[in-house]
């Protein structure tokens, strides 16, 4: 089974536990991350996660799961032009 076939079978589930841990299934690709922000592509679109002291605990590209710990401040689906919205976010940080 190739990657595209596997991804089409991914279910999408989001679990946030007391804003301290986050588990997301249906992850296609982790685009970028740092201690304040994670940007990923899921089967349901692009997702932007913001917080403090964020750490990547587990990324399983075969199963399509991602685990993060830290303080979760926001979790947003970027419906219109996910990558473009992320690029604008990065540019706004540079010129702040």
Fold and architecture overview:
With 96 residues, the protein is an alpha+beta fold. It has a single domain (3-94), classed as Immunoglobulin-like, CATH 2.60.40.2000. It is built from 2 helices and 6 strands. It has a 6-stranded antiparallel beta sheet.
Features:
globular, 2 helices, six-stranded antiparallel beta sheet, 96 residues, alpha+beta
Helix-strand layout with pairing:
Layout (H helix, E strand, L loop, with lengths): L2 H6 L4 E5 L3 E5 L1 E7 L3 E6 L2 E16 L4 E14 L3 H13 L2
Antiparallel strand pairs: 1-2, 2-6, 3-4, 4-5, 5-6
Spell the H/E element sequence.
HEEEEEEH
Terminal CA distance reads 46 Å
Percent range for β-strand residues: over 45%
Specify the CATH architecture.
Answer: Sandwich
List segments where confidence is low: pLDDT < 50 over at least 5 consecutive residues: none
CATH class: Mainly Beta
**What is the averaged pLDDT score?**
87
Strand order of the largest sheet: 1-2-6-5-4-3
């Amino acid at each position: 089974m190739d990657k595209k076939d596997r991804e089409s079978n991914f279910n999408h589930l989001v679990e946030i536990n007391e804003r301290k841990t986050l588990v997301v299934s249906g992850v296609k690709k982790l685009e970028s991350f740092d201690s304040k922000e994670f940007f990923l592509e899921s089967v349901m679109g692009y997702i932007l996660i913001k917080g403090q002291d964020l750490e990547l605990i587990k990324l399983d590209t075969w199963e399509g799961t991602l685990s993060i710990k830290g303080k979760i401040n926001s979790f947003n689906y970027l419906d219109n032009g996910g990558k473009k919205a992320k690029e604008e976010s990065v540019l706004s940080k540079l010129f702040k």
